[in-house]
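User: I'm putting together notes for a lab meeting next week and I want to include a structural view of one of the chains we've been expressing. I don't have a solved structure, so I'd like a prediction I can at least talk through. The sequence is below, exactly as it appears in our construct file.
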Amino acid sequence: MNTLKAAFGFTLIELLVVMVILGITSSLVAPNMYSIVKRTQAKTELEKIKAIASLSIEKSFFSASKITITFKANTVEFSQQFNNSVLTTTKSKILRTIKSEYFTFEETHIVVLNGNWQGVTSIKLTKSPDNQLNEFALVDLKHLSNTYIVDDTNVVNDINVIDDAL
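Assistant: Thanks for the context. Below is the predicted structure for the 166-residue chain, given as structure tokens.
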């Protein structure tokens, strides 16, 4: 006896219809995904700059030095100046330079001297993604405190963390 076995599977037409549906939905969703990724990367870049600016206050305090933060075009530069009291000379060292892919900053110079912030606390932007952001708060001085000295071990640990971040 010949028995016909039932064929299981999909026809070529059914597979093509599913592929067309997937293609149409992905073409509608993909542009939104790219803009979300771009906004997230831009936000991460600003948070990185804010974090390093906050750490600059602690580094300046613990090293009793002057840190200059310079915003110019799409570059942020963190530099430290050491005073040698014996030779009465000043050495300068660039701690970090960040080139922004998403923002252009108005030229601004900020000085952190022995842990004291001297300058503006928010930075004006001349270009941002979608030109929606004109200014961002770099630091909130009300929330920063100088309560890092508990004992000698904690001070050393805090200095190492700050040096690693910069």
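A couple of points you could mention at the meeting. Residues 13-165 form one domain. The CA atoms of residues 67 and 80 lie 4 Å apart.

User: Perfect, that's what I needed.
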